[in-house]
Write a structure and sequence with these properties.
Aminopeptidase, alpha/beta, six-stranded mixed β-sheet, about 475 residues, Alpha-Beta Plaits, 2 domains, about 35% helix
């Protein structure tokens, strides 16, 4: 099909879904897969990734994939933590492209939600469900697209490898699927590059696309336990040396502290491009923080606008849990707090721990790491990759800029980047200014965004695997 005709056909497919017309066969199939995934409970408490992975494998097998093309990998000791790996072979002239999505979801209580979180509800052009956005939309799109590729038989230079993994949402987890596959089954998922969650588009209040993001790199997740111990005693005769007061004073000092401002190539590019998209004071402030030294007043205004602007430019450490004392009428023998840090790439964890010790300024506060953060490099935004990402994006959303981003949260990309598989977050799925509600109540995704994302990922993976 000629390029112009192909683009018109694809555009009509997406537009039809957006305006309530009958779904195309491709969209209908995606919706069925999406609904099946969403309505398969994959929470840690009551669900099973193995069940979900088996259902997706059954669909792929029905589409023509052989048993040799499909592997369900269940880690020892985790019968519900299964992962699915599917492969569509190319000619081997280039290393594989990995399509990564996690199928586990965070917990959701029915009594807290407006709708049943484990039923796919479509209302007024929006899908509602736990996992509707994070990350079953991308997982369903990958499954549907793997079925499309199998039917179309494109001339692939790279193998297309899809991995649907478990336990991405649990940190730390001994059953994280991406980490487990890398350690124990690396040949199954070894690749030159990977497409993952972490990127996406932003809509304005009128549902007009504003920007399309590609995530390159993320902060390092590292938690610390702070603990103060004390002999305690009777509360009727209190000592001044109180474990709770030591801990509280240290946390108060931490709350007033800010780690140094730092920009990477990716975050600098983010603010450079966003300064041309935003308007007025926000645009001016984004330009002002790019100066050396950055304009502190501008940075404070951006922080007030959204805390993301603070966490993008510095390491952050915040108290998330506290536990102290053992009785109402006794002095505390122990006071503990958990501090969760999100560390900028390139900053050693040892240095962050040393900074915490200095800021807490109390030798009685013992600091212990909870787990060990995965330090991973930021992947390069190569010209070939960016050309594909931007050209396909412009075909679908003319004039909407692609903006590089660094995730302030965490994804399984940290394991892959650390293993030399450059991983990029990009989905083609756009969210409104209210966000998606991921991890929270009434998680949702616009209907149009699901079908747009499928089409974008279809084109992008096909291009990267055939050129």
């Amino acid at each position: 099909m000629k390029r112009a005709a192909w683009l018109l056909t694809a555009g009509l497919m997406v537009a039809g879904a957006a305006h309530g017309a009958a779904l195309t066969p491709v969209q209908k199939q995606l919706r069925e897969i999406y609904q099946e995934l969403v309505e398969t409970n994959t929470t840690d408490s009551a669900g099973s990734c193995t069940v979900a992975a088996t259902k997706m494998a059954k669909r792929l097998k029905a589409a023509g994939y052989s048993d040799a093309d499909l592997r369900i990998v269940v880690p020892p000791g985790g019968p519900a933590k299964g992962n699915l790996v599917a492969r569509l072979k190319g000619d081997g002239s280039a290393k594989p492209l990995l399509l990564l999505a996690h199928i586990d979801v965070v917990e959701a209580k029915r009594e807290d939600w407006t709708r049943d979180p484990f039923k796919l509800i479509e209302e007024d052009g929006v899908f509602y469900a736990r996992g509707a956005s994070d990350d079953k939309a991308m997982a369903a799109a990958f499954v549907a697209n793997m079925i499309r590729y199998k039917k179309e038989k494109p001339a692939l230079k790279r193998d297309l490898v899809m991995a649907l993994t478990c336990d991405e949402e649990l940190v730390p987890s001994k059953f994280d699927g991406a980490e487990y596959l890398l350690k124990h089954h690396r040949p199954l998922i070894d690749a030159e590059l990977a497409l993952n969650e972490g990127g996406g588009g932003m809509l304005d209040k009128n549902d007009k696309p504003v920007r399309h993001g590609i995530q390159a790199g993320e902060k390092v997740y590292q938690s610390f336990q702070l603990e103060v111990t004390n002999p305690g005693g009777h509360s009727s005769a209190p000592y001044r040396d109180n474990a709770i007061y030591h801990l509280a004073d240290g946390l108060s000092r931490l709350g007033q502290f800010a780690f140094p401002f730092k920009l990477s190539d990716v975050t600098r590019a983010f603010y450079q491009r966003m300064s041309t998209i935003e308007q007025g004071q926000v645009a001016a402030d984004m330009k002002a923080i790019l100066s050396d030294p950055p304009d502190q007043a501008a940075l404070e205004r951006l922080y007030a606008l959204h805390p993301m602007h603070n966490s993008t430019v510095r390491t952050t450490c915040v108290a998330t849990k506290v536990d102290a004392g053992h009785a109402d009428n006794a002095l505390p023998q122990r006071a503990r707090a958990t501090v969760n840090c999100r560390i900028l790439p390139g900053e050693p964890i040892d240095e962050v721990q040393a900074t915490l010790q200095r800021v807490l300024a109390d030798d009685k506060i013992k600091i212990t790491r909870i787990g060990e953060g995965v330090i991973s490099p930021m992947p390069p935004l190569t010209p070939a990759l960016m050309k594909a990402v931007e050209e396909i994006s412009n075909d679908m959303w003319p004039g909407v800029p692609v903006v590089p981003t660094m995730s302030t949260g965490g994804t399984d990309g940290r394991f892959l980047n650390n293993a030399g598989i450059w991983t990029y977050g990009i989905s083609g799925m756009f969210h409104g200014p209210e966000g998606s509600g991921a991890h929270g109540l009434n998680e949702h995704l616009r209907v149009k965004s699901l079908y747009d994302g499928q089409e974008y990922l279809y084109r992008l993976a096909k291009r990267l695997a055939t050129e």
